[in-house]
Amino acid sequence: MIAQSETIHPYGMTLTNDYDTFGAASAMVEAAEQLTRDEDARGGAHQYDLLHGAIAALGRRAAAPTLLLTSYLLRALTIAGWAPTFGQCSRCGAPGIHNWLSVSLGGVVCDDCAPPQTPYVTDDVVQLLAALLAGDWPHVEHAQPGQMRQVTSFVAEYLQYHLEKNLQSLSVMDQG
Ligand SMILES: [Zn+2]
């Protein structure tokens, strides 16, 4: 179990003057709490290490808060055993870039596997998701706001789908 006050306190001086940074930190902490709430702690100590690194990156302004939050969530989900797939079809494994983005199927799916109503995204969005998951910052820093909005909305939805719960703190991601 990760206590919010213990985690944020050491960085409080830096974070509280910046709403976006504070919002991203709050969302990271809430997600970590939810991901580790079960007794069979999902990722346990690894989750704490990841959270600590992400909060530190926020504190030193390593990248825009939304980018750091989104990358953190993708990696936390991966540690929890819910790694999304962006490099091949997440259902049949067909290689290549696919553009149907499915929360319930865990990433991109090919033309044959995409259920009706699956959102279609551009190659740029798929590559941005992959770059955020991999921590490929030079690629990520060129992200367009429209692409980021699609990416953050997918990641927020994907997290909440697996937690089976809505997290209030994720509203910070709506601001793109
Ligand atoms: Zn497929």
UniProtKB/TrEMBL annotation:
Lineage: superkingdom: Bacteria
InterPro entries per UniProt: ARFGAP/RecO (IPR037278), RecO (IPR003717), RecO_C (IPR042242)
Signal peptide (UniProt feature, chain positions): none
Bilayer-crossing regions: none
Name this protein carries in UniProt: DNA repair protein RecO
Organism: Yaniella flava
